[in-house]
Write a structure and sequence with these properties.
Blueprint lengths: L2 E4 L3 H10 L8 H8 L3 E9 L5 E11 L6 E6 L3 E2 L5 H18 L4 E5 L14 E2 L8 E2 L1 E3 L4 H7 L2 H12 L3 E4 L3 H18 L6 H11 L3 E8 L2 E10 L3 E9 L1 H5 L3 H15 L3 E3 L7 H7 L6 E2 L4 E4 L4 H19 L1
Parallel strand pairs: 4-6, 13-14
Antiparallel strand pairs: 1-2, 2-3, 3-4, 3-5, 6-16, 7-16, 8-15, 9-14, 10-11, 11-12, 12-13
């Protein structure tokens, strides 16, 4: 028997996430970010019959037009204590879903746990989601390995680029000041316009940096006073999770991408984190670059939907069209 209790204190919540080795997308700051941009957040603490905190879930809610009401999303959660069995994890998830159905309603919830596919959740009423938000196939580096072993996993070309960057003393460091963040955003927007991919407003990314606070980490290579390459992560004590990355022509000529990513991996390793998640692999050049850091892939559990309403199927059919309309309006 599990009890679900909403939490409204940031310190209490983040201490729980860290204590149970939760994902950075479950940290308070991520919920605050999404709440500043058209979502709201519920932080749900789960206790067992003895009152011990055994799990939690930060759930994001998006208001929808009538008659759908809302839809919910659990990004890389729920998170669980290490002693819970797979059956108990399912029980926790069922308790969270029951709380959501009673207190928020809407068309349903999409659950995307930070669990290997071999540890998949099976909540009551769960179905495979036709509209996943996060990619299940990714590359997660095991930071418990010595740095030399991590380096040895990378391809010959990537190792060469990293060592060349060290030899040439590339100016790679953590982005700290507002002016440096502005340079990062200029690089990102310029590259997005050149390559033709959509990104958020500058204010969204400034909110990522400010609302995540120390859980936001940007590593950048500077060339002639400008950001030539960067990688931006959200982090928890256990996991560092890539959010965004980009480079200018100058950064590509310097072959700075690999040294910048290695700088971030090394920082994660030195922090005591155990996992560095590259956040999704597709069939594109960016993913091929990510793959060059190891000779394997990780497959997390695929997205699950738990419908609350007969309108759930209608909303899922409408969602791809709605996304296209939003992109067109923004463009």
């Amino acid at each position: 028997m599990f009890t679900v209790t909403p939490v409204s204190d940031a310190t209490t919540w983040d201490a729980t996430v860290e204590g149970l080795l939760g994902h950075p997308l479950q940290k308070w700051g991520w919920g605050e970010l999404k709440s500043a941009h058209n979502w709201s957040a519920s932080r749900l603490l789960v206790s067992d019959a003895h009152g011990a905190r055994v799990a939690g879930a930060q759930v994001l809610h998006r208001h929808l037009p009538f008659p759908f009401k809302s839809v919910s999303h659990v990004p890389r959660g729920p998170f669980f204590g290490p002693d819970l069995t797979m059956a108990q994890r399912d029980g926790v998830t069922d308790a969270v879903v029951a709380w959501l159905k009673k207190n928020t309603g809407g068309v349903g919830v999409t659950i995307e746990p930070d669990l290997d596919e071999s540890e998949a959740l099976h909540p009551a009423g769960g179905i495979s989601s036709p509209n996943p938000i996060l990619y299940p196939v990714t590359l997660i580096l095991d930071l418990s390995m010595p740095a030399d072993d991590l380096m040895a996993q990378a391809s010959k070309t990537t190792r060469y680029d990293i060592r060349k960057g060290m030899k040439n003393n590339l100016d790679i460091r953590r982005v700290v000041t507002d002016d440096e963040v502005t340079q990062v955003l200029h690089t990102y927007r310029t590259n997005a316009e050149r390559a033709g991919f959509a990104i958020h407003s500058d204010q969204y990314y400034r909110d990522v940096h400010s609302l995540l606070g120390e859980d936001s980490f940007i590593a950048a290579c500077f060339a002639e006073g400008e950001v030539a390459s960067f990688v931006w992560l959200a982090k928890s004590g256990n996991t560092w999770f890539e959010l965004y990355a980009s480079a200018t022509d100058a950064g590509r000529k310097l072959r700075a991408n690999a040294p910048v990513k290695w700088f971030a991996i090394s920082a994660a390793n030195e922090s005591g984190a155990l996992r560095y998640d590259m956040n999704g692999l597709l069939n594109d050049g960016i993913s091929e670059f990510k793959r060059s850091f190891a000779k394997y892939e990780n497959t997390l559990q695929s997205s699950l939907d738990v419908p609350f309403s007969p309108l759930h199927a209608t909303w899922n059919k409408a969602l791809p069209t709605a996304k296209r309309v939003i992109r067109k309006v923004r463009g």
